[in-house]
Amino acid sequence: MRSTTYSTLPAGRNSSPLLKLQTLLHGLRLCLLLEGICLPSKAQSFFTGAVFDAETHTGLPGVTIRFKQLPGGATSQEDGTFTLPVPAAAVADTLLLSRIGYARLAVALGGGSATPPQRFFLKKQQVALQPVTVEGAKLIERKYGVTSQKALVHFTDGTIRPGEAFEIAQLIRLDQPTTNLTSVNLFVATSLPDSATVAIHFYGFDGQRPTHELGPPALRRRVAIRAGWLRLDLPALTTALPQNVVVGLAFAATSTPIPYEIKLAGSTKSFARMATAPNWRVPPHHYRLYITALVPRTAAPSRLAASDNQETPPTASLYATAVQDSFWLYVRVPKGYRPAQNRAYPVVLLLDANAYFDALSAELPKLPPAILVGIGYKDARLMDSLRQRDYTYPVASPADSFSVSGGGQRFLRFLTEQVLPYVDQHYHTDSSNRTLMGHSLGGYFVLYALAEGLRTQTPVFAHYIAASPSLYYGNDYLLRTLAALPAGTKPLPAQTVLLTAGSREVEREDAESRALKAAFSAYTQALASGRFPAVTLKRIFYPNYGHLETAVSTFVDG
Length: 558
Fold this sequence. Notes:
The chain is an alpha+beta fold.
């Protein structure tokens, strides 16, 4: 029989108001020194407490309480109260309390014997801004951000899980530090019968991610969810926001996901995070979100605001004879590229360019110089069905409900016989250093191209980057193909494969998640079995990422 003690810092080092969590196991009884409760050793132990705003001393809902190393956790209720299950292994852990817009509280456990307090206070994470006064000129209201709601195809965000608090945010680029903010606006695709609680936050921007929260303090609203622009009016403000400001909308947990609309391409920067995973993620889309502010009537039209609604135009159009359809090519050359120079650059072919080209283009300055070539569709309204046609092989089973499929072989011929020759003819390329990258079905096609290169002993690409590939498509066709391949008869050039997935894809308890996890494990084992010595495999699991969120991070990490 083991005796285990849970405690915080020694009493002499740091007493109130830090947490001192102590649990003693004596014989067959586990005594949790919280409210004087003593529980049987085989019973689940709980810690009940409450979290408050450090300034107003009002209860804080939506605070995540968890141990740093151990699984599980709790979320505070509307009045700030919570009940946290206490694992037996919490003796040497750290208790973390976090909420969007507040500084995280971390309390180390270990040593000491004092009974723990049950009240915790979180401080707002914000920086005061200098007030600015605008005088003399007559003011008009101007929009900044993604203002257009017209689209060939309308999409809503599928990355948010029901029943979990979350925050979406977007970079807003202003012409100058701006006063007199009047509203924040978000486009909602469809109405919901229930209302929702939303808090408005403003953050600084370091060029990559949101930073500290700016003044004013977070503004909370209870709003009806109706189709169209959701306008959140702001009280009279005189503090100036900087030219680059990130506007965040934090939604309390709802039983039905908020059906806000997203935009697939564009030059702005967007972010998202869950209350249980407070680090910002970069989604593969943008939000139809803008702010309004009062500016002098004589101010020139905003070029920055207009650019947020624009998308990169295609560089060229190619008719694919093998596919019998036309495709757009989007090309971005590295900084310093000169047509007159003889320097050869690696080539990166990106699938689903309609969705990902702008997002990856924005990351190019941080990456090794390369020529980025995106392959997209002329008719974006049919993009989903066309990628099913082009990125799959063999033909899908009836259970997949694909209207058309199985064209991967023809699409690969288009890439090798038309796209790569076109790029080599028009740009200075290194034909020995080519990369193919794709996401989901695009990731499946990347691995199909790898399998074809291994089968024919004539690989076209040196690097294969597959983000969250649909590995179980075609009754595990890719796995069966690898298993059937004979040992190579000649040495092949070195090839690298990056395979990624989000933890939320494989940790769910449903049939799809279990199938993906099994396929991912079986495929990586087959590829790393030693039968393909020219192939080097790297795997990445992104913590707290869902299926759609792995794309941009994978492309950058590849």
